[in-house]
Amino acid sequence: MHIVVCAKQVPNPEAAFSMFRIDEEAKRMVPAPGLQLVMSPFDEQAVEAALRIREHHADARTTVLTLGPDSARNAIKHGLAMGADEGVLLCDAAFEDADSYTTAHALVAAIRKLGRCDLVLTGRQAADWDAGVVGAGVGELLGLPVITFAKDVHVEDTTVRIERVLDDGTEIMEAAMPALVTVSNELGAARTPNLRETMRAARKPVTVWKAADLGLAADEVGAAGARRVVERLFVPVKNNRCEFIAGSPEEQAAGLAQRLRAAKLI
Amino acid sequence: MPKREIEGDWVMGWPDRKRPVLVAGKDSQGRVINGRAPITELEGLITPTDAYYVVNQLEVPEPIHPDDWILTIGGEVERPIELSLKDLQKLPGRTVRAVTECAGNDAGFFDYLMKGGGKPSRINQQDMQKRAAQREQNAVPSTEEISNESTTTCAMSAGEFTGVPLAEVLKKAGLKAGAVSVRMEGFDRGQPDLAVQYRSVGRSDFKLVDPGVINYEKGLPVEKALHPDTLLAWSMNGEYLLHVHGAPVRAIVPGWSGNWWVKWLQKIEVLKHMPECYYQKHYFVYGNAPDDPNKEMITAMGVRCIIVDPLDEDSPLERGSHKIRGLAWSGMGAITRVEVSLDEGKSWREAHLEEPRERWLWVRWSYLWEANEPGHYRVMARATDETGRVQPQIPWNYQRKHFDGIVPADVTIV
Fold it and tell me: What integer pLDDT is reported at residue A113 of this predicted model?
C-alpha cells in the first residue's frame, strides 16, 4: 500500500501575531526575519494518520509530498523524522505564487508520476491561508472519492473507513481506495520525532522535481496558470467600543441585558 | 521508569538532538522578556546563550547601536568622563566565568521545607507566557492566584563574560577618597512590576511603595566595585552581548545575585553614601515582614547545591547503579566539598567534585549510588565553600530571597 501525504511548509502559526506583516501593495505576506517555518500542523496530523495506518499494515509505504521553495525540504525532513519513508519536493521558480488550483495541479502530476497510490492524505487546511481547497482539488483532479475532516482513518483491505468530524458529532464513512482524505486536528497529537528516527531520516531519499520533470509547461503552473485573483489583502481593523452603564447594580444588570439582546448575543 | 526518548531535530541541515531551549515568555511583539534555563537538560558548565535565563524588573528598552552608546562616569571622581564602547575596549580587559542567579530562584522551596505541601519542580516550570501577558497588562494577581502559582525555579545559568574591570574605569576617572558606593544606572526605564514583588512575598494583601517611572539602578558598595572580577562586560560566551542580556554593556558582579548585574548600562556615579535605590531599599531586601523597619539589602548569595539527576519525575528507578549528579556554587568562593545523604541527613558521604573548581563558577559533582534495596529514598546533597560555609546559610525572609536550603530528590527504587 502506498500512502501519499501532501504537506505544506508554513510560517510557524505559534509565532506572535505581531510577527506577521502584510504588504498590501504586493498583496503578499512579508515574513519577519527569524520567523520559523514548520510543517502545517494539520498536515503533520495527516502524516501521523499515515503512520498509524502503517502500524497495522506492515507493507504500507508513506511518501511526503511538498510544493515550495528549497526551505520546504525541512518540512519533508520533519515528516521523514516522524517516520515517513520518502519525500518529494516540487521546487521550481515556475511554481512560485501558485494558487489553490495550480498547487493541486502540480501535486496531481507528481502523484501520477509516483505511480500506484492507494490513499492520499492532506491536512484539512493549511495553517497559513486556511483556504482548505487544495486537498479537495487534488481528489477532484485525480477523480478520487474525497472525505474531509477525518478524526480517525482505518484501512481494511481495499476500503478506507473514516470517522468524520461534524459540527454536532461525528459520522462514519467508507470509500473504496484509492481515495483522498483530509485530516482534522481531532485526530490527536502528532508524534514527536526522536533522535533515532531523525538520524535514520537523514538516509531517506528526498527527490526534487521541477515543472518539466512532471511534464508541466511553465504557463500552467504557479502564478502563470493561476485562476484565483487576489483583489485585496489586508489586516482587518478591529474597533473596540467601551460603554460604561451607569445606575444601581440592578439598573446596570438590566442595561447590560438590553444591550446584549440588542446585539443579538443573548 | 526509562528516561524520556531523546528528541531529534534538524540542526544546520544535520539530524541531531533537539537543543534544550529557554522556557520563555514573550511580549505582544514576539520578543522574549523572561525565560527559565532548561537546567536539567544541560551538560557542562557554560549555559548556551540562547538558553540563558532572562529576568527584567522594568521593561526591556529599545536597543542602542553600539556606535551611539556612551557611558557617563561622574560623581566623586577627579575627572568626570564619557566613554564609548571603543574607549572601554582600549582599557585592560578581563574574562570571568560566573554563575548568574536570580535572587528569587527556588523561592518556593523555602515554604516547601518549612511547611511541606506541593513541591516546586525544575521541569514543570511556571507559565512564563502567562506572566508576560500579566506584565503587559500591569495586572496584580490576588493572594489566592499567587498561592496557586508555581514559584520560580531554573532562574540560574553560568556564562563567560569579557569586559573591563569596573575598577579600571574608576581609576581612569580618578576615584576620590571617601567614596562609599558606585551607582550603576541602566537605560531600561519603566514602572516596577508590582506583581513580581507580590509574588515574591507570596501574597498581595498589603501596600507596596510605588516609585512611579524610574531607571533601573543599583548602588554597589565601593569594595565590591573595586574587586577585579567586577566587570563592565560587552561579551558573553564568546560573542557580543545580546540585547536581551543587556547590550551593549552590562555589569558583572560575581557571587552576588542577578539584580546587581545591571544591564544596559548608561551611567556610573560615585557617591559618598549608599543611594536609596528602589531595588535595594524596597525590593531585594532581607526582612521579616513588609513593615519590618530593619530591612537589609541582599548582596552575596549563600551556598547552593542542586540535584539534576535523578529528579522526582524520574522515579521509580530500577535497582542497580545510579549516578547522582548535580551542580554546586557559592556567592563567596569556590566549592570545596559536596556530600550526599541517602538516609534523610543522618549520615553524609563524600561526592566527587569534577574539575575545574573556579571561584565564581559552579562545579559539577557526582556520587555513584548502588541502589540495591527497594524502597523510597530522599536523596539529599549539601555543599561547603572555601570560606567554610556549609549550606544552608540564608534564613527565611519575607521576600524569599537567596534560598540555599537542602532540597531532597524523592526517588523510589523498585
Answer: 98
